[in-house]
Amino acid sequence: MAGWNRVSVRPIEHVLDELGTANTLTFSTPCPGVGVMAVNRPDRGNSQTVEMFGEIAWFAQVLRQAPLRALVVTGAGGATFCTGFDLAEVGVIAQMSVPEFNDLVTTAETGTSGLRALPYPVIGAVSGPAAGGGLSLALSADFRFGDASTSFSAGFVQVGLSIGELGASWHLSRVVGPAKAAEIAFTSRKVQTTEAYRLGLLNRITPDGEVLEGAIALAAEIAEQDGQEVRAAKNAMLRGTEIPSFVAALELENRAQVVRYTSSRTAFN
Q: Do 71 and 28 form a contact (C-beta atoms < 8 A)?
């Protein structure tokens, strides 16, 4: 794996030790260069809590410094990706002041946006439902794998909230298009596997029970590429979704190509 040391920031052992203290998430490295972050509350449908929002933000910060080439995000247990916020914790939120709730929302947004902004590819391994905040978490990945059990639903309007949470409205409109995103948001209906694949919510459909394995296999394939080149490609793709001008996108791509050529000139000789 050429250039491995160039993308190493912190020893992976340090990352494993630090993230191993989390209560609601787990982190593992099934093969060199590949990390797996799992939402770890299978007894509660891998639902989110106030603590989890903080831990996702923490993971995103630490993983940015990790010597990884790809990250897989999944749900522990293999039956559920993430069913959104745990309604058993609604009372905790109800007791928050407006400034406290604003801090919570900011923390939660920091987590999903931090995962999206990781400098290497992020793959969602979505078994079972990804609902509400789980949909937002799945959409923070660059692309997603699923199987026959996979479903996506906004669910926000059913509990008196807006889909404008954790980047869901922005991501969903860009993945499936504004009109279809609006339909999904307004009805809160489930988008099942076949439709999800047709709309682009899923990149691949694996045999039942093999979603995580399939995502790890692709992550390992990505990890075999030159790490700096993949990071440059990720940056170009990420920024390209935020640039409204084609000319501006070309300028960004050209700068990136010059930088990569300058640092890899020996490959062209």
A: no
